[in-house]
Amino acid sequence: MDFKGFSNEDFDVFKIDGLEARMEALKEKIRPKLEFLGHYFAPTLTALTGDEMHVHVAKHARRTINPPKDTWVAFADNPRGYKMLPHFQIGLWNTHLFIWFAVIYEAPQKQEIAARFTKKISKIYKEIPKEFVWSLDHTKPESFLHGQLTKEDLLGMFDRLENVKKAEILCGLEIKREDVLNLSSEDFLEQVEKVFNTVAPLYKIALNRK
């Protein structure tokens, strides 16, 4: 497809009432773009991580009542799934787009990953740009700006990841809806690539490679 970036219509999909109607619009308008981004960035992430990255576009298949409030494409080194692994995501809510490195609650290695992040706290705190954000729950749009966190705040997040069963941690960039609309497709792709370059070291730390 000829990728032209995201439009107001794409973001407005999340205002459509009803599961079926929203899912239909999602499949028609957003999913082709996510599939494009998946195939476009899988080779980039494969090169950055040294692992072959497989593309997983969210299907929201388990939903029976509540329509999805966000959607995404994920990248992981397993063709069958991504939730149990450290992975990367590009996706959108009604209000913004996100580009993440993620460890979510299904990952069985969370305690070891948290311990590795804690050990590398100084490096992580220093190297993540101040405009990047951290999230503790991929199902909610709230996040914490890195530039407003102390090292102790970040350590607290890592401690939570290690000790709370349902804990998660995500790090990356959020771009406001209006800013996404003002980006050319080339600028958008360049921005995503920069974010992946910045968060790829977190993946390597998570897997004890750095």
Please describe the structure with a list of short key phrases separated by commas or semicolons.
globular, alpha+beta, BirA Bifunctional Protein, domain 2, 210 residues, 7 helices
Could you explain how this protein is built, in words?
The protein has 210 residues and is an alpha+beta fold. The protein is built from 7 helices and 7 strands, in the order H-H-E-E-E-E-H-H-E-E-H-E-H-H. It has one domain (8-206): Protein of unknown function DUF1054 (BirA Bifunctional Protein, domain 2, 2-Layer Sandwich), CATH 3.30.930. A 7-stranded antiparallel β-sheet has the order 1-2-3-4-7-5-6. It starts with 7 loop residues before the first helix and ends with a helix. The mean pLDDT is 96.
Question: How many domains?
Answer: 1
- CATH class annotation: Alpha Beta
Rounded to the nearest angstrom, the radius of gyration is: 17 Å
Q: Averaging pLDDT over every residue, what do you get? A: 96
How far apart, in Å, are the first and last alpha carbons?
37 Å
- Can you give the helix content as a percent range? 40-55%
N-to-C series of helices and strands = HHEEEEHHEEHEHH
Give the beta-strand count.
7
> What is the overall shape?
globular
